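Help needed: design a sequence for this.
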């Protein structure tokens, strides 16, 4: 499979505060890749750097064959790199449909927006049902689907998703992951960060474990699930 995203020896952080000490990874087309690791490992910082919110101090980001290191979030979004940050990012007082339309803000033609809207509604029927409702009245799981829907409005080449399970009950986490798997079956390339390492590895093809801003382990997800050290350190024993 063709590589869609490659991160090479990425260093960066917040101003003088260094967080990433040379992270490298690769995502191939139509793959689901997860990044796991303890709190504060730098997972969100890595995503923020990939999507251009933070500028790396060194290293390279290659997206779809092009060196995009240092490009702005907006430009990357137009190129097909979508990002769902950690925590809720919907507009609670706007309707579900208005939120989805916001997701398409860089689209020029109304037809394209309608087309994307239709795709999102057929993938997530609950959003169609509730399209006139204020987004803030949706359940946690539905809000998570809305966030995915917003990111899909630009028909991205890859979706970077920071902590899909955050703040959701275990049952709802399963439902959201089922939807992510469905999405992935439609051919969307996905990279996700998860606290819930076991769940993430169960649904992913490949996994990276980050620790203290560095690559610690990597491998096919099924292998990591059975790796004794990974099990002991990140999967709560068992
Ligand atoms: N805006 C910020 N300014 C300064 N330091 C920050 C900022 N955001 C995060 N950090 C620091 O960067 C380090 C890595 O944080 P990051 O959010 O990338 O970790 P994470 O792996 O995503 O953790 P979590 O699993 O808790 O989400 C932490 O020490 C954190 O305190
Ligand atoms: Mg984080």
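Sure. Designed sequence:
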């Amino acid at each position: 499979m063709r590589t869609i995203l490659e991160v090479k020896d990425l260093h960066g952080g917040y101003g003088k505060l260094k967080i990433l000490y040379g992270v490298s990874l690769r995502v191939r087309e139509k793959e689901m890749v997860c990044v796991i690791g303890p709190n504060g490992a730098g997972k969100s910082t890595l995503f923020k750097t990939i999507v251009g919110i933070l500028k790396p101090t060194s290293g390279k980001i290659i997206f779809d064959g092009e060196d995009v290191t240092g490009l702005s979030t907006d430009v990357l979004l137009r190129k097909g790199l979508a990002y769902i940050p950690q925590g809720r990012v919907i507009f609670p007082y706007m309707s579900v449909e208005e939120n989805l339309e916001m997701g398409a803000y860089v689209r020029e033609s109304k037809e394209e927006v309608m087309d994307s809207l239709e795709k999102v509604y057929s993938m997530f029927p609950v959003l169609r049902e509730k399209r006139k409702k204020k987004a803030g009245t949706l359940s946690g799981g539905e809000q998570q689907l809305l966030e995915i829907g917003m990111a899909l409005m630009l028909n991205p080449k890859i979706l970077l998703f920071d902590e899909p399970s955050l703040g959701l009950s275990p049952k709802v986490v399963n439902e959201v992951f089922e939807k992510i798997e469905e999405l992935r079956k439609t051919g969307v390339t996905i990279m996700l960060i998860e606290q819930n390492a076991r769940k993430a590895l169960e649904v992913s093809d490949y996994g990276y474990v980050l620790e203290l801003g560095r690559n610690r382990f990597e491998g096919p997800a099924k292998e990591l699930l059975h790796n004794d050290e990974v099990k002991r350190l990140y999967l709560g024993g068992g």
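The longest helix spans residues 170-185.
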